[in-house]
Amino acid sequence: MALERGFSAFQLESIVAFTAEINVPSVRLMKRLGMQFSHVFAHPALCAASPLSRHVLFEMSRSAWTSARRPFADLFKP
Q1: Cα–Cα–Cα angle for 43, 32, 76, rounded to 5 degrees
Q2: 41: number of CA atoms within 13 Å, CB side?
């Protein structure tokens, strides 16, 4: 899993992820992974009028990941 590799192999202090605000499945996955919402921003490479312009940023710290770790298969249970 990418989070485990980032925190274990690369010793990252935090990992961020972003997606278009309207991409509800990806937002749900970030929440299910335990990532915390940070903020909304306008993607700099997209026209402001685009429905994909508004993005959400989520973050997870190494300490949050360590305390919230659960088996990968559990992430996909309803």
Answers
A1: 120
A2: 11
Q: What is the DSSP string of the chain?
A: -HHHHHHHTS--SEEEEEEETT-HHHHHHHHHTT-EEEEEEE-TTS-TTSTT-EEEEEEEEHHHHHHH---GGGGG--
The structural domain count of the chain equals 1
Which CATH number belongs to the domain containing residue 30 in this structure? Answer: 3.40.630.30
Q: pLDDT (tens digit, 9 = 90+) per residue, 1-50?
A: 788 899 989 999 999 999 999 999 999 999 999 999 999 999 999 999 99
User: What are 14's strand-pairing partners?
Assistant: 61
pTM of the model: 0.82
